[in-house]
Amino acid sequence: SKGVFVIPDILANAGGVICASVEYHGGSEGQARQVIAEKIAFNTRAVLESALRSGCQPREAAVRLAGDRVRSAMALRRCH
Q1: DSSP per-residue codes, 13-34
Q2: CA 11-23-59 angle, 5° bins
Q3: pTM to 2 decimal places
Q4: Which parts of the chain register pLDDT below 50?
Q5: Quick one: pLDDT at residue 1?
Q6: Burial class of residue 6, CB neighbours in 10 A (0-12, 13-18, 19+)
Q7: How far is Cα 69 from Cα 42, in angstroms, rounded to an integer?
Q8: C-alpha–C-alpha distance, residues 80 and 77, integer Å
Q9: Which helix (H) or strand (E) holds 69?
């Protein structure tokens, strides 16, 4: 209502985790910066589009997207 837009902490703080992943896989600082920019832009867009579609707050959309991704990753690792 005051014209202030808040990015959910899940998005704003993701750079460190992304950087660690790139470094773990042998990437350079430049590669890490590029991957961070791409992933945060992509995920911010996905969260905002989801929030607009569902009428929820961006944080709720971010938590839902993160949960969906974790569940999908867990399903791939299950032994049958």
Answers
A1: THHHHHHHHHHHTT--HHHHHH
A2: 10
A3: 0.79
A4: none
A5: 74
A6: exposed
A7: 14
A8: 9
A9: helix 58-77
Please report the DSSP string for 32-47 in residue order: HHHHHHHHHHHHHHHH
Structure tokens at 65: 């997207």
Residue type, 78: R
The first and second tokens of residue 62, run together, are 């971010």
Distances (CA, A) of 76 to 6, 17, 29, 63: 33, 21, 30, 20
CA–CA distance, 12 with 71 (Å, rounded to integer): 22
Which two three-digit tokens encode residue 50?
A: 């989801």
Per-residue pLDDT at 80: 53
